[in-house]
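Researcher: Here's a chain I'd like modeled. Treat it as a single chain, no partners, no ligands.
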Amino acid sequence: MSAATLSPARQRTGIRLAVRPATVIAGAFVALVLLAAVAPGLLASGTPTQIDLTNALATPSWSHPFGTDEAGRDLLTRVIYGTRLSLGIGLGATGIAMSLAIVLGFVAGLAGGFVDTVITRVLEVFFAFPALLAALLVIAIFGPSVTTSIVAVGLGSMPGYARMVRGQVLNVRQAGYIESAHALGHGRWTVLRRHLFPNAMRPLVAVATLGVGQSIVWASSLAFLGLGVPPPSPEWGALLDAGRLYITTSWWLEVLPGLVIVLFALAVTSLGRTLQHRLEGAAR
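Model: Modeled as a single isolated chain. Structure tokens:
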């Protein structure tokens, strides 16, 4: 039976069942990262602070798949236990960025006129500074810490999200079903709650998913510069910072945590794009 003869319901079912192998692999890796964040003891037998000076800077082996650091601590164990902190920074920064973006974007898109002009100009001022530079400024003022990293990365990525939200609100408020809802006598708050907000936010769900990986990469970049969570924390960026001094002699201290960060960012990006395609297909 050809695809043209299938009913719309059967076609939609086929679309839902068509999952790419890359998406499955990405989902499995993200699930493994979530397990490490929730229950690190299931994946690591030791502790991230367990010191063994007789085994310092050991190369990767069966007993230490990621090698050991200058204090003989198992690097894989430290990466696993640092997952919760790194993921918390990514989720927290994305949450701050999206919350501020939703408020500013909806106010600008709904109010229009002078209010829209002011908010747009403020966002343009933020855009004048690179996101990483804005984060560096916040950390330079308040000092490096977990909270500062979350706030700094969140503020740095907020303007882009706010512009997206504003654009979505402007598009949705001009849709025919919004005019129909007003014509049927629905109140402004009802139209906003039932129609405008859900439809404007649907594409941003995937964007927020992509933002988690991006936030972790930015936070790790700040830590690599010595402006993130300070060592001896097992946070991924702090591991990069700690391994920087040994990059020419003990490559695994820098390469392997960095590889985990890159793979997680790629996996989350893959899942986010898949989610975006599904949402766009459901909206048609």
